[in-house]
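Input (structure):
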């Protein structure tokens, strides 16, 4: 019996890890979560009018059934944008477990973008995560914020806020670039943004982006291109010198003369960094080797509804992977939640899970791996 057939049989016979599905506290939407070394889940989400939402933070310790009482992150009420699903808040844990949060500000938000358009707003918690500092705008040289930004941090005090936008004088998606504002003092100050783009790929205006700093200090940025306005494959930028210089590689190709308004996720596991994205109504993921940068074959969940969007991914201490996504969601339309567990070799474990009408309007899900090996999906 061949190795691939054996792996498939073992995958089908394996007992899947526990998967719990919980709701965002207080009716919030667009959750984003990370887990710390103690197994505490740290969560941000939006709540309020889609055009003038608030950002909230909550946490849940291992063994607890409920999240803590949410704390508002934005210091100016109603300055976060939920319209479009792709523009919600992003979270990262930094030095000493400090929480860093980044979100698209509304046109009425302050501080304003000194050029024009929406500001990109940032706040960080105090060391005990009991309150958040006044919000700040990180866009100083760029404009045209549209799809979601992302934030990544490490335990040495380095924070990377990234987004795609335009420099003064440029126009069109084909001239959009990925930008990074960096902090070396755990978010106390940020340098003016610098372009991370080394190849003129453009950037799909209404699509979200992802970022991660892995355990070796490598910085990853993932976004959808817009080369010539029609090539919208996923593009990966990788920096091994702390964000000073980035290498560009393509994860897939998608010739499509429109914006799919998609989101993406990056997460680190014991066997490398995993990236998840959407192409042509299907969600996929690949594993990136931390040393060589080589990627595994692209893996997709079984079947396909042709409306799979907003993949989120997590990996547990056994190397098992859970990918969750939405189905049937669209502009001003909720949909269903679905998920699939994979073993460490990439073979599916058990059937595709599904919760009909499990995603609200402007909603998506996030997933984290728990210390016990199970997974928690927050919707």
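Output (sequence):
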């Amino acid at each position: 019996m061949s190795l691939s057939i054996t792996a498939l049989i073992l995958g089908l016979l394996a007992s899947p890890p526990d998967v719990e599905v919980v709701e965002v506290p207080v009716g919030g939407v667009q959750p984003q979560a990370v887990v710390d070394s103690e197994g505490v889940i740290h969560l941000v989400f939006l709540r309020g009018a889609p055009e003038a939402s608030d950002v909230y933070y909550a946490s849940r310790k291992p063994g607890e059934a409920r999240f803590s009482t949410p704390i508002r992150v934005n210091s100016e009420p109603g300055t976060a944008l939920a319209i479009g699903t792709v523009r919600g808040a992003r979270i990262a844990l930094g030095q000493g477990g400090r929480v860093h949060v980044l979100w698209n500000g509304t046109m009425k938000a302050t501080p304003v973008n000194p050029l024009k358009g929406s500001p990109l707003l940032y706040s960080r918690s105090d060391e005990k995560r009991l309150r958040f500092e006044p919000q700040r705008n990180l866009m100083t040289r760029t404009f045209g914020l549209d799809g979601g930004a992302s934030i990544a941090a490490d335990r040495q005090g380095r924070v990377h806020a990234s987004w795609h936008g335009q420099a003064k004088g440029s126009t069109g998606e084909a001239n959009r670039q990925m930008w990074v504002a960096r902090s070396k003092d755990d978010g106390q100050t940020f340098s003016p943004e610098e372009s991370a783009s080394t190849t003129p790929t453009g950037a799909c205006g209404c699509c979200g982006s992802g970022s991660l700093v892995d355990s070796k200090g490598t910085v990853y940025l993932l976004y959808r291109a817009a080369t010539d306005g029609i090539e919208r494959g996923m593009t990966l930028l990788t920096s091994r010198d702390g964000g000073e210089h980035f290498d560009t590689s393509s994860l897939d190709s998608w010739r499509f003369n429109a914006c799919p308004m998609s989101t993406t996720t990056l997460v680190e596991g014991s066997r490398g960094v995993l990236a998840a994205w959407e192409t042509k109504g299907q969600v996929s993921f690949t594993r990136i080797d931390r040393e060589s940068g080589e990627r595994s074959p692209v893996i997709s969940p079984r079947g396909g509804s042709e409306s799979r969007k907003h993949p989120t991914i997590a990996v547990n201490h056994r190397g098992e992977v859970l990918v969750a996504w939405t189905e049937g969601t669209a502009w001003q339309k909720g949909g269903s939640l679905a998920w699939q567990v994979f073993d460490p070799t990439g073979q599916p474990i058990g059937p595709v899970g599904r919760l009909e009408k499990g995603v609200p309007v402007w909603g998506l899900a996030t997933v984290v791996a728990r210390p016990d090996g199970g997974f928690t999906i927050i919707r």
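Notes: The CA atoms of residues 211 and 221 lie 4 Å apart. DSSP finds one helix and 27 strands in the chain.
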